[in-house]
Each structure stands twice: as C-alpha cells, then as structure tokens.
Amino acid sequence: GLQLYGTSRTNMADKQSVKRMLSKDYLSGKLSANELLEKLDKLSEFLLKKSEEDEDQLSNVAISLLQDSIVKHKDESVRLTAACCLADVIRIYAPNSPYNKRQTETVFKFLIKELGGLEHVDSPNANKVAYLLERLACVKAFVLVVDLSELKVKLFKQLFRVISENHAKMIVIHVLDILLSTIDESREVEPELLQILLENLIQEEEEGSDQSARLLAWHLIHRCTEKLQPFITEYLNDILGESQSAGSELREKSHRLIYELNSINPSLLTSILPQLEPELKVEDLQVRAEVVQLLANMFSAPDSKLPHNYRPLYNMFLGRFIDVNPGIREVMILDFAKDFLQNQSDQKLVQKVQEELQRRLLDPVDSVRTAAVTCVCECAMVVPEKMSLNLLQEVEKRMRDKKEEVRKTATSGLAKLYNHLAVKWGRINKWTEEQFKLYSWIPKKLIHCLYIPTAEDRCRVEKVFQEELLPETEKASTEAKFMIDVFSTFDEHAIKAMCHLLQEKQLFREDLYEYLQIREGEETDKLKAKMQSLAKRLPGSTVDNFELVHNIPKAAGKGLFSDLEAMVDPQSSEKKMAAAHASIIKNHIKTKKKTTKRQYYLDLLAQKLSFGQFGSRHVKFFFKQIKALDEDEDDDDELSVKSTILQFLESFSAAFPVYFVPSLEACSELLTSSDSKTVVSILQILGNTGKFFSEDSSLSKPLKKPLTDVCLNGTARQTRCAIRAISRVFPASSSRPVLGKLVGSLWGQANDSNRRAEALKGLSELCLIAPSAFNTEAETIVEYILQELLPLQSKTSSHKESVNASDDCRAKMAGIKLIWTYLLSGKDDEDLKETAENFADAMKEIIANDGKYCITKGKSTPDKDKNSAIDQEFLKTSAACALLRLSTARSYEKLITVEDFQNIARIAQDRAFEVRDKILKVIYEGTKDVKLLSLRFLALYTVYATDPEKELVFKAKKYLQQVIQIRRDVIKQATNLDSTLMNALLPENALPYVIHLVAHLKTFPDDAPEYRETYRYLQFFFDLLLQKADNFLFLIELLQFIKQTEDVQSPDSHDIHIVADVAILILQLLMDRKAFSRKHPGKVFLPPSLFRQPEDREISPSLSHLPVGFQLKAKKTRVDAILSMKDHPQKEVEEGADTSTASSKAPKKRQRVQEGSEDEAPSKKQKTNIAKIIEDEDVVVERESKSEESEEDDEFLKEHQKEAYKEGEEAEEGETEETDKGAKKTTKGPAKKATATTKKAPAKKAPAKKTPAKKAPAKAPAKKAPAKKAPAKKAPAKKAPAKKAGK
C-alpha cells in the first residue's frame, strides 16, 4: 500500500494544543508558507485519528480549510496538505456533508484540481497525492456530487488525463473505484461524461503509446455495463443517426467504437447491431468497407455468439462474399473467414463459410483467389480437422490456375501444409482414416503440376518439392521415411512426372557440362546450340535466358565456373559436389548485395543441379527398405511402394550416379530377387552406375555370372536390360568377349520355340550395343526371319477367350524389330540395300493382306480362325511401324511408294484404338526430328481429324502443332538455307501431300456431294498451319497450281481438284478477315511423284469441280464438340473434373468398325493386350534418350492443359455476381451457338453411285462462277465452331 506521510508525527502535547487547533483562528492570520504547512501537517495528523463520533468538534476546522488563503495558496505542498485534511473531514462526516451546496462545489473543485498532481509521478508531493486519492476512494467521497454534472465531468476528464502506465497498481485501482462509485450512484450518465469514456475507449493503439486511459475506460464500462447500457444505446443511436449532439470524432469512429463495446460486452449493442444492415448495402464504398471490416472482426471473434443472436444481419453480411468490390471480398476472406474457421465451434456455421470460401476460389479476380488459397492453407494448419475435402480439392485446382501468382500461392501453401502435418502427425501410416482422406493427396497432386508445360511452373514445383514439401530432420533415415510416405501416395502419373523431373535434371546437367567444356573456345555453332538448349530449359524468355547464359562468363569469376564444373562433372565425389553447391549459394547467391537477375538464375541453376538434401545416406536406406519389402510380397500396398521407390531410384541413378557408390554392393545383391520388376529396376540402376563398377574390378567381377544368367533365362525386358548393364559395368576389353558369346547363345535360343521371342529381342539390343559382334551372324539371322520365321504357321490356343498373341506371333514381331533395327544401324551400307528391299516387300505383303502373311503357308483350322485376328492386328501394326521406321533413313525412304503411304494411312484409321494410337506415336517420333521422317508424313496427322476417340484427336492436334513449330524454329535459326532445303522444311509444303492423301482415302467417294469429312480433314490441318502465320497467299498459290495438274496415280480422276477447291473455299473464308490484294511473289513446287502437268490438255485454275451451289457443311459430331470446346467455356468448367480422376476414368475405347469388313474385331480384353504387347515390342531405336514422354503422359498432359489455367472461369464465363443495389446479376457466356446442317446417313450414299455425273459442273463455263459465291457468303456462320476450335 501507500506509505502515509503523517504516521511519524508525535501526539499532541496537551489538551490546550487540541483546543487551539479546533478553533476558528487556527489557520487564520498572516502565516508564512512554512508556518501554514506546519499547522496543516499537525491538523492532518489529528484528523487521521478521528472518527465519525468526533464530527461535532470539527465544524470550525471544516470551514477554516476553505479559506482562499489556503485553497488558492501558491505553494503546492500547502494545497495538497489542505486537500488531505478535507478528505479526512469528508471521511469523518460521511455519509453526510459538513458543507452546503456552494461549499461542496468549492471543496470538490479544489480536490479535483489537486488530483491533477497524479500526473507527476516523480514529484516530492507524490505521496500526498496518493494519500488524497486513497482517502477519496475509500469513502467514495464523490458520491456527494453525483447530482452536480459539471463536477462529474471535470472529475472524469482530470482522472483520464492524468492516468499513466507509470502509476502503481493501487493508484489505478483507486482511480477506477472513484469513477465506478460515481457512475453507480448517479441517476443518469451525462452525454459529456459518456463521451469522455468512449473517446478514451477508442484511443489509437499506436506502438509505444500509453494505453492506460483506454484500459481504464474498458474496465469502467465492463464493470458498469448494466448501468451504462441504456445511455450507450441512446448515444450510439445519435451517432448512427448523425445527430448533432454526438461528437464528430466519435461519429467518424463509430465502427471502431462498436467493435470495442462488443469486446467488452455484446449486450451493450443489443439494439445497435441491427441498424448496421442498411450500411452493408450502401453505394458508398468506404462506408460499406468499414462496416464489413467491423462485422468481420466481431463475427470471427473467439466463441462469438453474434451469428446466432443476429441471424438476419449475419446472413446479409455473408452476402458480401460476392460484393462487387474485390477489396471487400478479400476482407471477407482474410479478416473474417480465416479467423472464423479457427475460432467458431458451430459446425453448421463453419460449413456455410467454407462453401462461400469455395466459391471465392473461383473468383474472377486473381487477388481474391490468392487470398482464398492463403486463407484455406493457413486455417488447415491450425484446425485441420475442420476443413472439408471439397474445399481442399478446390485449392488443389488453383495449382493450375490461369494466373501465376495464384498457382504459386497454392503450390507453396499446400506443400507447407503437408510439411506441417507430417511433423505434427508423424508417419502417414499413423494418420487416422479421416486425416488420410483429407490430406494424403497433396504430394500426388503437387507433382502432377509438373505436367503444366511452362518452364516457370515446372521450376516452381521442383523447388517446392525439394525445399518445402518434406520436413528436414537431423537423421537421413527419418527424411527417407517421410519421402517413402510421399511415394506411397503417388499414382502412375505422379511417378512418371517424378521420373521425368529427374530425367530433365540429367539432361540439364549434361548440357551444362558440355557447355562448360567448350565455353573457352570460339563461339562456334556447337557452343550456341548448347547455350540455346540451356536457355530453353530455364523459365522466362528464351532470348533473355540466352543472353544471360552468354553473359555469365563476363560477370562471374573463375570460382563460379569451377564450382559449376564440380557439380556437373560425372567424376566428382558427393563431398565435392556438396562443397561446390554451398560455395555457389554463399558466394554468388546469398550475398549482401541487392538481389539481381543473375543471382536469381544462379539460384535456379543450383536448384536444377541438385535434389534438395537427398544424398547417398537416403539411397542406402532405400535399398534396405527394398530388401525388407522384397521379403514380404503379400501386402499389395507395400509392393506398390517398393515399385515406386525402384522407379525413383532408376531415374535418380541416371541423374546422380555418384550417390549410389556406397550402395553398389547392396544393389547387386538384389539381382537374385524373385520379383521380376525388382530385377529389371536393379539392372537399370546397374546400367546407370556402371562406370563405378568398371573402376573397381572387385565389384564388377562377381556380377558376370548373374548378369549372363539373366540374359539367357530372363524375360525379354530383363534380357535387354542385362545386356545394357554388361556393356557398362565391365570395361570395354572385358565386355566384348561376353557380348560376343551372348550373340551365339541367343542365336541358338532363337531356334527354340520356348524362348524365341526373348532371344530375338536380346539380339536387337546387341545389334545396337555391340554391332561388330552381331554382324558375324547378321546375314544368317535376317535370312532365317524372312524365309522361315515370318512364313511360319502360328500355333494358337483353342480357348475362345484368349486375348494374348501366340508365342510365334511375338517371335515374328521381335524378328521384324530386329531387322529394321539392323537396317537402320547400317543405313549407309550399300550391301544392305537388297536386304532392305526384301524386308520392305515382306512388310508390304503383311499390310496388304491385313496381317495374314503369317498363315499363307499353312492351313487354317476352325479353332485358329477364332484367334487369328489378334495376331493379324499385332503383325499389321508392327509392319506399318517398321515401314515408318525405315522411312527415317533417307536411303530407305524411296522404298515406301505412294500406295504404301496410303496403306499406312488406312491402318491409321484401323478399327482398333490401340493400333491407331501406336501409329500416331511412331509418326510423332519420326516427324518431331526434321532429320528423320520427311515432310510428306505430316499429312498422316490429318486422318485423325475424324477419329472417334477424342484423346487421339487431341494428341494428333498437339503433335502436329509441335512438329510445325519445330520446323519453323529450325528455319528461323538456320542461316544460308538453299531453296531445296527450305522447301523440305517449310510446313506449308505438306499441303500437297494432304490434298493427295485425302483424295485417295477409301471414304472419299462416299463423302460426295457435301464433302463434310473432307472439310474436317482440311480444317484440322489449316487450324494448326495458320496459327501465328501469315501464309494465305502461299497456300492459295499452291492450291491453284494443284488445280492445273493431274494426279500421277489416277490421271483421269478429278478428286485432287475437288479437294483443292474445298481447301480454297476454307482459305477464302479465313481470308475475309485479312486484307490481301496481291499475289504470292515467290515460286511454289509440287512433288512430281504425286502431280504432273497434263500433256494433252490444259486445266484452268478458275474452273471449279465442286457441285453447283456447293457450300461448306460440317456435320456436327462429338469430335466437333471437343474441338470447339473453347466456344463453350461454361460447359467445360462445369463438366471439368479433377484431372487425375479424368485420366484414371477415361472412357472405354470404342472400335471403329468399317463397313464391309469381314475380319473379326478384337474384344476389349484383346485390345488391351494388343496395346501392352505393341508398346513393349516396338520401341525407339535411340533408347538412350531420356527426354521422351510416354503416351500416357501425353494424355495426362492434355487433361491438365484443359484445366491448367482456370482463372475462375465459372465466374468469368457464367458466375453470377450480386451487386450492392439489389439482385443485379451479370452473366457472361458464349456469344452465339454454332449451327450445322445434318442429314441422315442413307441420303449420302445415293449420289455416290452417280459419281461420273460430277464432272458436268466442272465443264460449266466461267459465267456461272457468281452463282457459287452466293452460298459462300453464308458459310462463316456455319464455320464458326471449326475456326474457334483451332484457336
């Protein structure tokens, strides 16, 4: 407590002193300040000991203390001592007063003034002021003036002014007691007094400011809630009603005031909050934003009951989630939803807010979507059990948002969320079922984002996966366990994406290593090519990246290049690589200087050249885990995890083989595993890390026998992988004899029907790896395949449900592959010319006989006929692929005639989906490299325009677009191209091949007279050819030239002229939006193998061969709807499901059965096996290339691209926004619907029988030309879907 200053005084000497002290004249007379102070001190000591029984003796003292010479004395000590005496007098007389009203006012004015001394905490009179305050508080002295409004207001002003955080706790308590007693005993609370309270309550909370007055007001209102409620309600009504009686400052801060009052006691606002409803709908943005901010803070407070108590206001407040202003929507998300989801316990209210939040994840404004993503991720870290699966999955879709900032926020947010939960909950097998359902998908969906085609996104996902997804711990085994947990969530697409990421790292490391080796020389074409390759793999503009790579040597010292070389050098140890990485980070990235663009790209380089903290210790733990899982083959989940780990290690060993050095022995031990897939993966790892074995004979020597055994006894894939491993594990001097013996051993097995297929596949591998050893038996092997194996009658099963190819058929396909591999490896050898011709003739015969070459020398049986269709599909596809492979060599391309080319196109339209898919893949593999398949093979893409399966349409479209762009890039980058090479590269020169092929399709005669399919073929090609190109004049010139020639294959036919006319009509429609009035200035060339000038006649280019009145009519089909999906974005958004789900639940493949086909169509099970065996059988010759994406990756990529950049399209194309003025709604959608004229199928056949009559219109005079132009003017309305589909 307080120390009382008067306790040390001595008692009065005698009664005479007391009598003199109580007299009227005791304080009168001319007294100095010291004398007066001395007397007042004695009086104070005397009064301290008196009680209410002595009040009759003190009347003179009470009056004498009010003398002006005392209360107006200049000395502060005199005034304070007198005030203490007055306080004791009031205490003694309490609850009565010794003064009249006027005197009472004088006394309390004096006391209030002296209480101002509390302001000076360090004053010599501080104890006296404290004593005065205590006495006044203890007796509730100010109760005597509760009816004197002016004094009450002065009291409140004074105490709120002087209160400070420097005061002792008891001082604050006494001040609070005085103010409480004053309010409690008052019949009413004056507006002025209330204004003082409220103004101090909303004092600004600035950093470092004294908040004592605000806290005093808060506690005072809290303690007097019941007393103050009616007065506060009336006062706030005046403020909200803009009454002049309310303070202007409070009126401006009314929302802050309401919030503070709510934090004190919500009952203070019972009749106030409903008055805020109109403010939620006012047009004034500032007012609306303030009230939204206020209610957001109030409704989201911990355990707030306001949503229940004010349901109409709460429901109207939720409507601000769709406020027209994006800033208010962000406030609703970040300031309301974020805290509300964490603090609210009512699950129904939480669910409602989550639904609103889910809609904001589709908001048309990217900043709102970013805020929504941030809100969900941060809430999930705090209260993961409250989150709904639908809300989290919508956040997952934002990882493929249209805006980069949204994608970045979603990717990083979900990765950090999973990291947090992994640390919080531990291993994933310890998670509850609900936890697993809600959050286990995050790593899988995150890695799926690697399918987004932009380099920026791929680099970001790579960085997030390496640095943010997995928790960092001190033990490598713990980190490896967390990574295994991540692998356990992967699906097939995620595994392939991860492997592709590692392959990209490998290629980047190889390119950078080669660049560093040649950088000091002159800027040769090779150096530029490497710089260009590196620039393409970095995010951002390729031109800017090229300049950056080019300028790094100028800006960096030798230290940087030595560090980079250490990181990418295959001979560098793990320790050296780690030291180089740390040096780059310390000396070139995280410097004290301001971050530059060069530092940013160096950070990307360091990221791409490493894999986070993953190293040899993790690899070692993985091999232990594989060995443990290999012993337990009963659990399907564990087998799946083992498979994922093995696939990861395969790709990781190719990119970072040095990390496997400590585990080479453990790796080789797994060769004896009973699991075939494990053995294959180990063989792949041995092949990738073989150089370390070759350096240590103690490691490689024990592998000779097990690898040889696998070659001679393993599966086809094991045989190939083992041969590759032998060539790398052993030094060249040791591997040659081993591989030479294998050629003889496998050739011996080729005559054994039990392992014929496996042996031939092994020989194919040896043909690539050890050509000198294979060539010793090459002629014998080829002769055996062509003369004995292919004519061999297949031994088929009599089982009706058989879906597998016969063993003989598999051997024949292996033989076909072996021969074309052998021919391509010696494509420059003139001695192989005859072998190539014989092989091509055999393949043509298989294609011509629809795959029946294998039974021409045998008699078929009833049982065999049931299954021969399967073998025919296999052989026919292998033969077509073999011809395409041969065509990649210019020395063999001439073996493929025009008729052969058309037969390949026919197979590309086969009834079996897998056949069409495989042909498309081989076409793409050949055409994406300008050195392989020539320009004419681009025409094969067009036959997929009418494919019944949408995924093949998308693939063909994507492939052709890439191939066209590749050729244009080559032309752009090349210098001094001659005209011949230019014509061979220019994609526009593929148009004559397209015209000729379409005119010779089997379905072309039935397409008359409307030529709908012809239109679709051409439109498909033009949509891609005309993108970002201004080549109309050249194409028109080509078509006009074609119209003046005749078909070499069918000189009397006008089919090529009809197709050319249709193409011209399409281009004319497209040219309506172009202003072309001049002709193409250059020359055009046509392939002489397809077109020639007629010798005996002249064909006018202005003569049309189309029927009179012809107009373009494209039949509206499902494929058209797919291609024109951009015309219906709303439908795409509504029907767009999760991409991984869409991929895993792809529609069943339907067979395209042509009319008049007598062959039995394969069943669904048969088609699956066809795809599987063909995929395994027909692999790319350049098997070392690691940048190829599988077809399933391509399909998944297409699915991701379709949803990749959703900018809240539901909101942009069809989302309804509620404005603040009422129920105003705006909906955006397709501007118009495309129309098409359709007819019944039988109606198309009648004109086909009268095809000779089609020539009559062609001979019509030119005067009738205008009659043909009239329908063409209406064509754009019908052509709109096809045009938009190409965009």
Largest sheet, order of strands side by side?
Answer: 1-2
Structural class: mainly alpha
Largest sheet composition: 2 strands, antiparallel
What distance separates the N and C termini? 85 Å
User: Percent helix among the residues?
Assistant: 55-70%
Average pLDDT level: 78
Q: Return residue spans where pLDDT drops below 50 for at least 5 consecutive residues.
A: 1-14, 796-802, 854-867, 1073-1078, 1115-1287
Shape: elongated
Q: Radius of gyration from the CA trace? A: 45 Å
Describe this structure in words.
With 1287 residues, the protein is mainly α. Helix content is 62%, strand content 0%. It contains 65 helices and two strands. It has a two-stranded antiparallel ribbon with strand order 1-2. Helix 9 crosses helix 11. The chain is elongated, with a radius of gyration of 45 Å. Residues 1-14, 796-802, 854-867, 1073-1078 and 1115-1287 have low confidence and may be disordered.
Summarize the structure.
With 1287 residues, the protein is an all-alpha fold.
Q: Which features does this protein show?
A:
two-stranded antiparallel ribbon; elongated; 65 helices; disordered N terminus; 2 strands; 1287 residues
